[in-house]
Write a structure and sequence with these properties.
By secondary structure, the chain is of the alpha/beta class. It contains twelve helices and eleven strands. The longest helix is centred in the middle third of the chain and has 16 residues. The structure holds adenosine monophosphate.
């Protein structure tokens, strides 16, 4: 695996690869890698010639400075995992490399028209978060210019935001978005870098998020859905979670669904805190 810290050096290398007809697959991450990330690397390796993984903890997407400061960093292990999976390139830029002049200055005047998507669920509870995600992904895509971009369904709304971003920037003609299934621990908890911050008892409790989504899946019925949503919220509150949201929404638009006609494709989404740690998960319902 080749490690690049400078965008210009990475670009030179990828230019030569592309001149030789090699296709680039790209997996952007914030590190603290787990098998969810690795599944994206594997998918990219299967379908492209050169797999690039980036590790960059993007300050622009943290609306909570404590969350940013406590974000896990496990660089040595990450490099080991990437090497053993056969990742070709690791891009490990500094903040200045991604945001010349600092991200506040870099972002001046940049605004992504995300509309409704930015006002609900994660957008509502983490103001500015998706603008920050777009800022970094836009910049990374300009540097890497991949043929295929690999994202995890674990971040369902983020996938929709990035789809919108590549449409807004006209990249949808050159980049194929590949959304890979959520990888879970044996008990069902969605793998997440933030799981590393859970102590033993918090880790045991954490699976309740997935179980709440299963309640929604197992008990989905036609007609009014509000009582069912409340039941899922209660199941989390009883275990000591502070719930941001538990929602059933249209799988394509993310419009909340208060009733079900037996046909509409739905997804359940949840975000909740166990003490200091905020976890999210989702489950397509039908
Ligand atoms: P992150 O490092 O959290 O920014 O995630 C980097 C990429 O890995 C994103 O596209 C995530 O959706 C994806 N990802 C994170 N967790 C999982 C998981 N459990 N299963 C599949 N993909 C994941």
């Amino acid at each position: 695996m080749i490690l690049f810290k400078k965008a210009a050096d990475l670009r030179n290398y990828l230019d030569s690869q592309q001149e030789n007809g090699n296709t680039i697959g790209f997996v952007p991450t914030m590190g603290a890698l787990h098998d969810g990330h690795i599944s994206l690397i594997r998918a990219s390796k299967k379908e492209t010639d050169v797999t690039v993984c980036s590790i960059f903890i993007n300050p622009a997407q943290f609306n909570d400075s404590k969350d940013f400061e406590k974000y896990p960093v496990t660089l040595e292990e990450d490099i080991y995992h990437l090497e053993s999976t056969g990742c070709d390139v690791l891009f490990l830029p500094s903040v200045n490399e991604i945001y010349p002049g600092g991200y506040t200055k870099y972002a001046t005047g940049k605004y992504y028209e995300l509309g409704y998507l930015e006002t609900i669920l994660e957008g509502k509870y983490r103001p500015g978060h998706f603008q920050g995600v777009c800022l970094v992904v836009d910049r990374l895509l300009q540097i890497v210019k991949p043929k295929r971009l690999y994202l995890g369904q674990k971040d369902y709304q983020q996938c929709m935001v990035i789809k919108r971003l590549i449409e807004l920037t006209g990249l949808n003609y050159s980049i194929r978005l590949v959304i890979c299934p959520t990888q879970r621990e044996a008990d069902g908890l969605a793998m997440s870098s933030r799981n590393m911050r859970l102590n033993k008892s918090e880790r045991e409790t954490a699976v309740a998020i997935y179980q709440a989504l299963l309640i929604l899946q197992n008990e989905l019925h036609e007609g009014d859905l509000n009582t069912l949503k409340q039941k899922a919220v209660r199941s989390l509150e009883q275990k000591g979670f502070r719930v941001d949201y538990v929602e059933i929404a249209d799988a394509l638009t993310l419009q909340p669904a208060d009733r079900w006609d037996g046909q509409q494709r739905l997804v359940a989404l949840a975000a909740a805190f166990i003490n200091e740690v905020r976890l999210i998960d989702n489950l397509p319902l039908n």
